[in-house]
Design a protein that fits this description.
This protein is mainly α. 78% of the residues lie in helices and 0% in strands.
Length: 394
């Protein structure tokens, strides 16, 4: 079961990898502006947040298999919708309803469903690390595929070549659907609580509040917006941006392999905080860089550290709630994050349109550092208490 989840994650991340780079180029080719790129990015995240909220509130009434099958079909429809429409309002609607992911992580309705399955693994930090690693590797390879439209430019108009990438995205959704067909019919939890969240409600909402700050900051510089920044500030080509995001994805994937042993050695909270703060400093350095080479070097250094918190974060949430609360906890920590991240791309689009090309990157770095310090202050002792309780129960 977990193998199918990981294989489908690889397919989805491959598609997300090239879409994050292609999306701003496609929208610009259709005649839309920087502000519209930001608004459509906001719409994708806002729609994903509401869908994830529905999963957390009512998902325990259905099997994980049925929910994943439905989400995969929605992914296919999203790709076809973007390929079929060319004006702002229909694209905005498809972005809101669909599964498009302009970020570097898994910001869709798939995530809480996948996390519910992974929480049953014997080595939970290891399972989450493999999940993140596979997603990063596949996303990196997908970013390289963003060069395909330029390669096809001799045979097709650029906008048509870009449109083909969304058809490829739809095909990845169909392939994921075929993988999910082999999953067993298992409910989200064997023990359903009387409410989606029970005894762990307080800690889940505290975590959700902090995670939302991190996600708001991350939404200021999604991969799609970072690609737009590289296009506009330095004139980088689509192929060059694809190669850059390949290397950032590869570095992120390699770092996530180290996340699980590091979390076992120094703890999940320490892993999240002590790797995240340096990555934010590198992002600020990239914003203040005076040339492309220095900016890329800082961004590559950032990518080596910025995603190490992802598997530790997912494993930490699953460790501080009861098994029956896990589907709801995964969703209710994801929803505020998605809602917060949905606000910021429009802000970045407005900043770019106003000529403030540096401001979103600096704001992202400063906010993320503040989040890390608050997380460390609030939860540095919670992990030890959870482990002590687990040993006592054993």
């Amino acid at each position: 079961m977990i193998r199918r989840i990981l294989a489908a994650r690889a397919l989805r991340s491959f598609a997300d990898g090239f879409i994050a780079v292609v999306l701003p180029a496609y929208l610009l080719a259709l005649g839309l502006g920087q502000l519209e790129v930001g608004v459509i990015s906001t719409s994708t995240l806002l729609g994903s947040a509401l869908a994830t909220l529905a999963i957390g509130r009512w998902g325990n009434r259905f099997s994980i298999r049925r929910l994943l099958l439905g989400a995969a079909l929605l992914m296919a429809a999203t790709g076809l919708g973007f390929a079929g429409f060319a004006s702002f309002w229909p694209l905005l609607l498809v972005a809101f309803i669909g599964t498009l992911n302009p970020s570097s992580g898994d910001a869709s309705i798939f995530m809480p469903l996948d996390h519910t399955v992974l929480a049953n693994a014997a080595d939970r930090p290891g399972a989450f690390a493999r999940y993140s690693f596979i997603g990063s590797i596949a996303g990196a390879v997908g970013a390289l595929a963003a060069a395909l439209p330029e390669a096809l430019g001799a045979h097709l108009a650029m906008v048509d070549a870009l449109r083909l990438m969304f058809i490829l995205y739809a095909a990845a959704g169909i392939a994921a659907w075929a993988l999910y067909l082999g999953l067993p019919e298992v409910k989200a939890g064997d023990e359903q609580p009387t409410a989606p969240l029970g005894p762990s409600r307080g800690i889940v909402w505290r975590l959700a509040a902090l995670f939302s700050v991190d996600s708001f900051a991350g939404g200021l510089i999604l991969n799609s917006l970072l690609a737009l920044w590289l296009f506009q500030r330095y004139g980088m080509s689509l192929a060059g941006a694809g190669a850059f995001f390949f290397w950032t994805g590869l570095l992120s994937a390699c770092s996530q392999l180290a996340a699980a042993p590091l979390a076992r050695r120094i703890g999940m909270i320490n892993t999240m905080v002590f790797t995240h703060i340096p990555s934010s400093l590198f992002l600020i350095g990239a914003a203040l860089a005076t040339n492309l080479q220095v900016a890329l070097a800082c961004l590559l250094a950032r990518s080596l550290l910025s995603q190490m918190d992802v598997p530790a974060r997912g494993a930490f949430v699953m460790s501080v709630v009861t098994p029956a609360e896990r589907p709801a906890a995964a969703s209710f920590t994801a929803v505020p994050r998605s809602l917060a991240a949905a606000i910021s791309p429009s802000i970045t689009g407005a900043m770019f349109a106003a000529g403030a090309m540096v401001a979103p990157l600096v704001a992202c770095g400063v906010l993320k550092i503040a989040y890390d310090l608050a997380l460390f202050a609030a939860f540095r002792r919670a992990e030890a208490r959870t482990q002590a309780g687990a040993r006592h129960a054993a």
